[in-house]
Structures are given as structure tokens and as C-alpha cells.
Amino acid sequence: MAKIDQINRKILQELTRDGRISNLDLADRVGLSPSACLRRVQDLERAGAISGYRAVLSPQAMGIGFIAYIGVGLNHHSKDSQEGFERAMQAAPEVVECHNITGTIEYLLRVEVADLKAYKTFHTEVLGTVPHVSAITSYVVMGSPKDAFR
Predict the structure, then answer these.
(1) In a domain, 61, yes or no
(2) Which residues of 6-34 are buried (b: 16+ CB within 10 A; e: fewer)?
(3) Residue 70 parent element (H or E)
(4) What is the pLDDT of residues 29-64, one digit of tens each?
(5) pTM summary value
(6) Domain count, the chain
(7) Are 68 and 139 in contact (CB under 8 A)?
(8) With a cut of 70, which residues of the chain have pLDDT below it?
(9) Residue 42 domain-assigned (yes or no)
(10) Which residues have a Cβ under 8 Å from the Cβ of 27 and sit 6 or more positions away?
(11) What phi, psi does 146 have (nearest 5°)?
(12) Do 121 and 88 have their domain in common?
């Protein structure tokens, strides 16, 4: 396991901001030689602290104009009902996040679609047809002053 010291924190912070940064630029920003920086990044990857790299997509460029968080409650609390719900959410491209949570509901979803009409279709034709769903509460995103993944 790679130790997460101050330098490794800086490396992770810079890579979170720009996963495509060159090793030379990264080394310069964190105050290491390029070879020492590369060793640390490789150690962080091997240890699982860095699990991958990805592209950050623009919702507008992808035709996404409507984002909602949805709280979902199930009326049957069994392993089968949870697994069935999770399979249905895996198959729904509108669902970009699905979290099993504690509290008065079982799941929190992040749904991204083109517009309100597309959301209504998802709400009715997808979410509304999943067995054991007993409660659906929608929270429409009006703005995102801080979103670490955008």
C-alpha cells in the first residue's frame, strides 16, 4: 500500500484536476524529479489509490439538459428485490450513478437526460415499471456551483 504523504496528496490532487498531465509537468508542480514522480504515480496505481483515468464529458455537448437526483424506496426489503433493482438501473443509460444508502429510502440515483419530457419518460417507463419500487422523490438540479466531476 502506497503511503499517502503530502507529496502523494499533491500528485493525486493534480491528477484529479488533469489526468492527462505529462509526467514532466506533474513533477514540476509537485516539486519532484520526473523519475521520482513517475515512481510515485506507479506506486499509487499499484496500490489502488489511482483506480483509473477517464474523460470528463460536457453535459451540454452530450445533449444533457436535465439532471435530477432521485430517492427511491423499495417496499420489499430482500436481497432479490435489491439485486433486481440494481440490475434495472445498470441497464438504464439515463442513470449515471446508483447508490445504496441508509435512511428512510434504499437508493439515491443521478439521472441525466435531454429534457423534462425525457425525464418523464424515464420516470414512467423505466423507474415506474421496476418491481418493489414504493417511493420516488425527485430533486431537479437547477445549478451546480461545485461538481468535482465536471
Answers:
(1) no
(2) eebebbbebbeeeeeeeeeebbebbebee
(3) strand 66-74
(4) 999 999 999 999 999 999 999 999 988 888 889 999
(5) 0.82
(6) 2
(7) yes
(8) 1, 150
(9) yes
(10) 33, 34, 36, 37, 38
(11) -145, 120
(12) yes
